Amino acid sequence: MASARASSWLVFTTSSCMVLFATLCTAISPYYAPGLSESFYDKSCPQAAEIVDSYVTKYLKKDRTFAGAFNRLQFHDCWVGGCDGSVLLNSTASSPAERDAHVNFGLRGVEEVDEIKAALESACPGTVSCADILILAAREATVKVGGPWWPVALGRKDGSVSVDLLADGNLPFPVLNFTLLVDNFARKNFSAREMVVLSGAHTIGKSHCNGILPHLYNFTGADNANEIDPAMDKGFAAFLKQKCPQGNRTNTIFLDSTAHKFDRAYYKNVLAGRGVFITDSALITDKSGRKS
Question: What positions are marked as the site Transition state stabilizer (predicted)?
Answer without folding.
Answer: 72
